[in-house]
Give the backbone structure.
Amino acid sequence: MNSRARQRKNLYPFVVLICAIVYLIVKYSSKAILIETYNIIPSARSNTSLEINIVIVLTKGSDTNEYATALNTLECYSALHGYRLIIEHDDRFPECSIHMDKFFRRHCHTHKMMTEELPEDSWIFFIDADNGIANPQRLIDDLIEPDYDIYLYNRFFNWEMAAQYLIKNNERGRDWLRQWSEYEFKTPASTHGSDNGALHVLMMNYLAPEKLHSSGLAKECLSIWDRSGHIGHLFNMESCVRMVIGERTYFPAQRVKIFPKTISFARDLWQLYSHWSTDDFILHAVKERYFKPSSLDYLARRFENLRSALEDPSNDVLLPSPLNDISSCDSVFPLLNKLNIDKCRNGTETWIMDTRFKISEKLHRQMLEEMSDRILKEQVRNIYICAELI
């Protein structure tokens, strides 16, 4: 073998090694190299006169790693804006051990915090652990109006109110939350929907107490709840309740505001197949086990199919919902980087957002409004079903 051949042979392992290194660099750095990003460097809120507590109550033994991404955004958001983030397990207050249902127990826990620990007239923003901040420039303060103490919002995929809330720590707020927690002991032996089902009956009593005695419809709502045998019946009860209290947003006498679907402070991540816009504030259902980058093409196709179908009002579209297989749990949260809490605190952290599923605010509003209209029509149809049950 001549010297040139030997040199080539000796170089072969080095060539293989270099190729392997290049492959690994491309494989594990492809996100950074190939994805166009949308960067946000949010500024801290300038007016800190409102004392706001973000409260998350977990069931004892819950693994917070399941919510790592969501909690990282909440920690950064809280540190930036001077909100107090409180994450606790639900076994700290012995008085709340009487609650066998974990969903009611967390409201008892929050009520105890309000009564014994949190400052009078401060605010409690109670949310689930699987809520991720999508736009850190949005402020909780902006949700608050002088004449209202209790804020709820309508979930998007149906006609129920979500079991997340913003309330003032005053006598009204504490009494309302106490009533809700104690509804565990009033639920019927049926498919009652736990705290979410009870919330609707509570709000019917709270917002329209006069109708409980004068309206046969209110009594029938309770009858449907008593007889509920599956989740469909539960939705029938919720439709019935909405007929009693109406679709109003403001209830000044009770100091309650219910945000409508299209402008609520949170929506489910899967609602638009992981697509987002700067109009979004909080995205719900952000769980680590749902993150599957391999589903990118699938999510993109489903979104385009949904967008195209919504363009024709006459199309009968099966909207994403946890009640059908069209709502896949596979998802992608738009934040690409893990946030440094120290940098968040001093206002220097950059939120690096994935633009692959970023859509315009105009398209975002158009699609959500069209979906909301269709859900309203479905609610009307459900009212007829409800009438047959009465």
